[in-house]
Amino acid sequence: MTLEENVALVKERIRAAARSAGRDPGEVTLVAATKVQTSDTIRRAIAAGVTICGENRVQEMTAHLADNAYDGAALHFIGHLQTNKVRQVVGRVDLIESVGSAHLLEAVEAQAAKLDLCQDILLEVNIGGEQAKSGVAPAELYDLAARAADCPHLRLRGLMTIPPIAQGPEGNRAFFAKMYQLYVDIRQKIDHNGTVINCLSMGMSGDFEDAVREGATLVRVGTALFGPRPPMGKA
């Protein structure tokens, strides 16, 4: 199938999953995970109807920005963000989805203050408690969310997660359900003028339909759009 056909198919699968859960399909937006894709491929995806691109690597993102590859779409940073790369991301993306620690939160706030702007962020939650993954533990989420809400140069928009690798069909639904409850809880507890909490980013190519059924508003899809990722430098 072509990229254009894949974009149409993934969007239809999102709509079908939303309808099956009694949700308005308009509540869910596709984020095209453009890791290792060329600028031309990104432009094709946008022309095919992608409205948000998500980048994992700062170096790739910077190159694509210089090439104006994202024109016509919003840009999210969805990968692990090191504090020494914060200055290259803040103010250049519409949303940083992967703020998972107080240390990173402070670095993003400091850079946004230097630029005198307000940066939209999501808090990344390590919902599976995996040591190899970044993200705040669920038990510590409220404290980090309250801290984010008090940062004058940040706007807390919601939560993001990358659950463990699914073990069988619907293997991550329980994690997605837990994330939705955290999302609802944070929306109720954090009432602050500096927040607009309406984003729950979860689900990727192998499980995005389950994520939609459990309440996702953003799904980050790469392989189902672009096919298996080629080695770095060979996209």
Structure described in brief:
Helix content is 37%, strand content 19%.
Features:
37% helix; eight-stranded parallel β-sheet; TIM Barrel; alpha/beta; 235 residues
Walk me through the structure.
The protein is of the alpha/beta class. The chain has one domain (3-226): Alanine racemase (TIM Barrel, Alpha-Beta Barrel), CATH 3.20.20. It has helices at 3-20, 39-47, 58-66, 102-115, 141-149, 173-189, 208-213, 223-226; strands at residues 29-33, 52-55, 74-77, 95-99, 119-125, 154-161, 195-201, 218-221. Strands 7-6-5-4-3-2-1-8 form an eight-stranded parallel beta sheet. Helix 4 (102-115) links the parallel strand 4 and strand 5 (119-125). The longest helix is centred in the first third of the chain and has 18 residues, at 3-20. The mean pLDDT is 94.
> What is the first-to-last residue Cα distance?
17 Å
Give the CATH class.
Answer: Alpha Beta
Average pLDDT reading: 94
Number of domains: 1
Write the H/E string, N to C: HEHEHEEHEHEHEHEH
Measured on Cα atoms, how large is the radius of gyration? 17 Å
The CATH homologous superfamily is named Alanine racemase
Main sheet specs: 8 strands, parallel
The tally of helices reads 8
What strand line-up does the widest sheet have?
7-6-5-4-3-2-1-8
